[in-house]
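REQUEST FORM: STRUCTURE PREDICTION
Request ID: SP-0412
Submitted by: Lab K.M.
Chain count: 1
Length (residues): 262
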Amino acid sequence: MKAYDNNDSGKRRGGFIGRHPILANIVIIIIVALLGLVIAYLSLALFTKHGQTDVVPRVVNSSYASAVEKLHAAGFKVEIKDSLYLDNVKPGLVIEQFPAGGAVVKPDRKIYLYINAVHPKEVVIDPMGDSRQPALRGISMRQAKVQLEELGFKKIKIVYVLGDSDRVLKISVNGRPVYKHQKIPVNATIVMEVYDGRKTALTDSLQNAEYANQLNEPYAPDEEYITEPYNSYSEFEEIPLEEEYENEEEQSQPVSTGAGLE
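STATUS: Completed
RESULT:
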């Protein structure tokens, strides 16, 4: 009985697993890994619909309702990516789609739509400071214009007013001033009043003109401005206007000669 047991255990120890346990475990691991890869590949192909494709319908320039209906009928999902505002496009139309019409994609793909908004986008042109203060006042004309263009404004009218420098005095929309933190439609016409920088030159000109006028009036200037002071401006004779005209008429008449009297 014991001899039978020894022979049976010897046969079991003589198998591949018994004789090479480490190598057998490696083989088992490889087999399990291969099976896992096969299962993963089949599952991935099942869920991603490998080898299956559909063509995306073109829905640009269609209404949003029509575009959604058309894409759903083709087996696609729809999501609005963003809404823009274009003056030359009817509100509510699809202005762009991604993927584009005619693209070959997987079935059940999500299609992103860009819609032309019904109302124009509104932005704040000056979010800093007190809301009771005029927007963009005090900054340079160039900086203000660049800032407005970056926000999307295309209709910007510049009006110059008398001032010291090229700084912004006031921003107006539809005849009304714009204040800080106030929202403005991007399609609005911006009127930007800017100082023209001529005030200093004009002030100098006015001062020079005033000084020139003073030279024609009786006054005693300061001694530091003249080299030979005089007592009064009355020493210069002023000719009345009527006498001046009479003198001009006398000079214009021809001088008579003796030959003419004969």
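NOTES: Residues 21-48 form the longest helix (28 residues).
Reviewed by: T.R.
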